[in-house]
Write a structure and sequence with these properties.
- Two copies of one chain form a homodimer.
- Chain A is of the alpha/beta class and about 270 residues long.
- Chain A has one domain: Alpha-Beta Barrel (TIM Barrel), CATH 3.20.20.
- In chain A, about 45% of the residues lie in helices and about 15% in strands.
- Chain A has twelve helices and ten strands.
- The first copy, chain A, is globular, with a radius of gyration of 18 Å.
- Chain A starts with a helix and ends with a helix.
- Chains A and B meet through helix 3, helix 4, strand 3, helix 5 and helix 6 of A and helix 3, helix 4, strand 3, helix 5 and helix 6 of B.
Chain lengths: ~270, ~270
């Protein structure tokens, strides 16, 4: 889907919430485990219940790979279900891939062509030719790790190089790449003091912001520092929504959790308009 | 498997060759495509034919993910076949994963516990807590990207920071991590002029060296600069061995290709002894 449609959906739903499907067999309600594919059953319920509150869905590949080939089937069924039933929801494969060109080609084909995701997250360490195969899909978005939400982001991303931090170098370098207009950037909500300067570097790009909820970041801080004239941010929440409840009423709890995010986002959007 | 056994196998086989199973349905001999799982059929033939010439097998996950859930089944069958029949061959999941802690936990579980790989490649960009879940598996090896073989390695890995290149910072930082003794490092054969200084930074660690064959690196240059008193290097070749032939005699061609690598390695090892 194109950026214009995503922006329209953000305004229509008054939400820039991304639902992170970090679906974990050890955490979903026990009564779902009788289902032949409990992961897909859980995902389907979440998607159907939250479709009016979220504009994007992010599938974290680790949580599917840990279930082996069965997990890959759950992943395939989930993205197929999204594409068939909710084509206006922006889909993200949170895979953090990146390898030499002929290998990144295969990853890009796997996630964009075969699975039909709108976007995939990639790691910048191996440089331009590891990202190009993704950027070659002009109708897709490639989401580059810039400044991540975890403590370990301080190990290398903040290293100073020629008066710039590494994450700034990554962003600045990526602006020279063909297809830059199809890049989005991962910026952790726990790093809200740095988001403003990142927004100045890429005024028009969408930012994918993980790290609210379980990780402690603030939606209003992120919005204040990063919203642009088309909003331009997607804030992800995974665990805080998925596992808000664990009993028979788990869906109601998840809806309440997502609604509280969406309500805050709606107020921020309306205040800005 | 432990490092001591790997070293013994290197001396026993006079080889530090790693076979890279970048198995590509569009490149394997056409007559294999009638098989219900041509990828596994091809891998099995390669493994059985080359088991005396190689000490390690590296499975590049991209080439399996591109075939979806079926690809994951081929991957599972391949690693299961290796573990059952060739327990002394060191196995590598070339996955280049790395994410926040709770996600890396799942990747580590997927590759180490469920699939039973001896090692997995990881990307350093997200820092210590993205690697720790792998290092927590004390009987496994974690292979950290340091200096990669591709052109894009120059984009960020060579950036100067506090008088060190980024890849040097990565290596030096990793020496402070608990479990460092279970780390190995990816260093591209195309960067042989830098390998000597990397070896000085990590005199005892194994280096996984891709980039000979299709990418143009030299085995003797790598050996001269990086071999230590237990050899300490694994040189990977994928395409140059797998696709040496494409007709009915493809296995003979692959054996010839692997033998020529192994012969060169044998001479280097014997000369050193």
């Amino acid at each position: 889907m194109d950026k214009q449609l995503l922006v329209e959906e953000i305004y229509r739903k008054s939400s820039f919430l991304c639902l992170g499907l970090d679906t974990d067999l050890t955490k979903i309600p026990k009564h779902l485990l009788v289902n032949p594919d409990p992961v897909f059953a859980f995902n389907k319920l979440m998607i159907d219940s939250l479709c009016n509150l979220v504009v994007a869905v992010k599938i974290n590949t680790a949580f599917y790979e840990v279930n082996g080939a069965d997990g890959w089937v759950s992943l395939e069924k989930t993205i197929e279900y999204l594409n068939s039933n909710y084509p206006k929801i922006f889909t993200i494969a949170d895979a953090k891939r990146g390898d030499i060109g002929n290998t990144s080609d295969k990853y890009a084909k796997a996630f964009f062509e075969n699975l039909g995701f709108d976007s995939v997250t990639v790691s910048p360490y191996m440089g331009k030719d590891s990202i190009e195969p993704f950027l070659n899909y002009k109708e897709k978005k490639t989401i580059l790790l810039a400044l991540t939400s975890n403590i370990g982001s301080e190990d290398f991303q903040f290293l100073n190089t020629n008066d710039l931090k590494l994450y700034e170098q990554v962003i600045i370098k990526s602006k020279t790449w063909e297809g830059f207009e199809n890049l989005m950037f991962v910026v952790g909500a726990t790093k809200s003091e740095y988001i403003k300067s990142i927004r100045e570097l890429v005024p028009k790009s969408f930012l994918l912001v993980p790290g609210v909820g379980a990780q402690g970041g603030s939606i209003s801080e992120v919005f204040k520092n990063a919203a642009n004239d088309h909003i331009g941010i997607l804030i992800n929440s995974s665990r805080a929504i998925l596992y808000a409840g664990s009993g028979k009423d788990f869906l109601e709890k998840s809806i309440l959790s997502a609604k509280s995010y969406q309500r805050e986002m709606s107020e921020l959007i309306n205040f800005k308009i």
